[in-house]
Amino acid sequence: MIIYNYMKSETHETIAVKISRILADRIIDGTLEPGMKLRQDHIAEEFQTSHVPVREAFRRLEAQGLAISEPRRGVRVASFDINEVREVAEMRAALEVLALRHAAPHMTRAILEAAEKATSEGDNCANIREWEAANRRFHRLIIEPCGMPRLLAAIDDLHAASARFLFSTWRSEWEVRTDHDHRAILDALRKGDTDSACLILARHVQWIGHRPVKTASGKIRDGFSIIG
């Protein structure tokens, strides 16, 4: 009986991880908009499971700051404002600079070439999803040699938050752009100038864009996004 309960718990845990990952993706890409109610019954039916793993998935989303539980109102997609965007930008600046300082001594020509390729691909992206993927790939490539998995995991979570802000603001009418900061960071790293690379990176990820956004109800709200 003890073994059976353990296996049952493990199964619920696995399903909860899957559900939370899929819902997180929907929240990040804007399919589930801020303030939208997450209905436990509907989600359990969609994933053909009981309410137990759905509740666990909700707790995971709350821990990530993607959902909020309200008394007598259930669970909703968390909203965000300019203060949260700034917080994520400042955290990214601090942690990515830390990672880059540890990564710089282990930087190779192959890594720099791959990062250059990611930047070139980003410059030619036709939509926001492609650009975000190329941008994230660039940032991950230059910090991964730090060899600090907990730090990298924390940065990954912040990039997910950045993507949510970005998608909410630039869901359509994406403007093609050339990323001069990425190339300046790579130039500094090629010269072995870690301090300059870190200064440019810190400034780069703290740049916050602004754009008016029309909501589903037709109202206009201020949209803010981290675009580095």
From TrEMBL:
Pfam families noted in UniProt: FCD, GntR
Record SUPFAM superfamilies: GntR ligand-binding domain-like, Winged helix' DNA-binding domain
Keywords tagged on the record: DNA-binding, Transcription, Transcription regulation
Residue span(s) of domain HTH gntR-type: 13-80
UniProt xrefs under InterPro entries: GntR_C, TF_FadR/GntR_C, Tscrpt_reg_HTH_GntR, WH-like_DNA-bd_sf, WH_DNA-bd_sf
Protein name: GntR family transcriptional regulator
Organism: Paenochrobactrum glaciei
